[in-house]
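Priority: medium. Attachment 1 of 2:
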C-alpha cells in the first residue's frame, strides 16, 4: 500500500496517508491510457467542417465551349475542381469523431493515470484547502507553499471560494473528485488533492 505525506496550506508536513492500491497501486497500462486520451480529444472536436463538392457549387451547368476544334482541353463544367470557383475534390463533410470505449476501460485508464502520478511523486495531498474569500493571491500563495506551478487541484466539494480564486491562474485547473479524467491528470504536471477528495476518489472508483 502506497503512503504519501499530507501537507497543510503552509506547505508543512502534518501527517501520512495510506492510499488504496486498487486505485493508486495498479499496473500502469500505457496503451489503454493513450486510447482514453485519444477518445477524449476526439470528443472535443466539433466535426462541423464542410466544403462543397462539384455537385453542390452553384452554376456551371453550361458546357464552357464545344467539345472539339477550339484547341482547349475538353471541359464539361466551369465548376469542376480544376476551375477557380469549382468544387472541392473529396470535400470534408460534417461528421462525428466520437470514439466509443466501455466503462471498464475508462476506469482502468483513470487508475493507471493516478498510479503513475503517485509513482512519480507528483501526487500531493493537503489536509484541507479552504479560503475565507475569493482571492487569487491567497490561492497562489498556497500553490507556492506546496512548490507547485502547473497543477490539477482536486476538491471533494465545489468550494466556490477556491474554484473562483483559481480560475485566474492559467496553469491551474480545479475539478471535483467525482469528475476527474485521464486527460487532465496527464496534462497538468502535478495533482494536488485534499484529503477528503482522495477519500471520495477511493469511494467512487474503487
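Attachment 2 of 2:
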Amino acid at each position: 500500500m502506497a503512503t504519501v505525506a499530507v501537507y497543510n496550506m503552509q506547505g508543512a508536513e502534518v501527517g501520512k496517508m495510506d492510499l488504496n492500491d486498487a486505485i493508486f497501486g495498479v499496473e500502469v497500462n500505457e496503451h489503454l491510457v493513450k486510447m482514453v486520451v485519444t477518445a477524449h480529444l476526439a470528443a472535443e472536436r466539433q466535426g462541423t467542417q464542410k466544403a462543397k463538392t462539384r455537385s453542390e457549387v452553384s452554376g456551371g451547368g453550361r458546357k464552357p465551349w464545344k467539345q472539339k476544334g477550339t484547341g482547349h482541353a475538353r471541359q464539361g463544367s466551369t465548376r469542376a475542381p480544376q476551375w477557380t470557383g469549382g468544387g472541392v475534390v473529396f470535400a470534408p463533410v460534417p461528421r462525428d469523431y466520437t470514439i466509443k470505449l466501455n466503462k471498464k476501460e475508462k476506469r482502468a485508464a483513470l487508475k493507471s493515470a493516478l498510479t503513475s502520478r503517485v509513482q512519480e511523486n507528483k501526487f500531493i495531498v493537503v489536509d484541507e484547502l479552504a479560503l475565507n474569500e475569493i482571492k487569487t493571491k491567497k490561492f497562489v500563495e498556497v500553490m507556492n507553499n506546496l512548490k507547485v506551478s502547473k497543477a490539477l487541484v482536486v476538491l471533494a466539494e465545489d468550494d466556490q471560494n477556491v474554484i473562483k480564486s483559481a480560475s485566474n491562474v492559467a496553469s491551474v485547473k480545479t475539478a471535483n473528485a467525482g469528475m476527474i479524467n485521464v486527460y487532465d491528470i496527464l496534462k497538468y504536471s502535478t495533482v494536488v488533492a485534499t484529503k477528503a477528495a482522495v477519500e471520495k476518489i477511493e469511494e467512487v472508483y474503487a
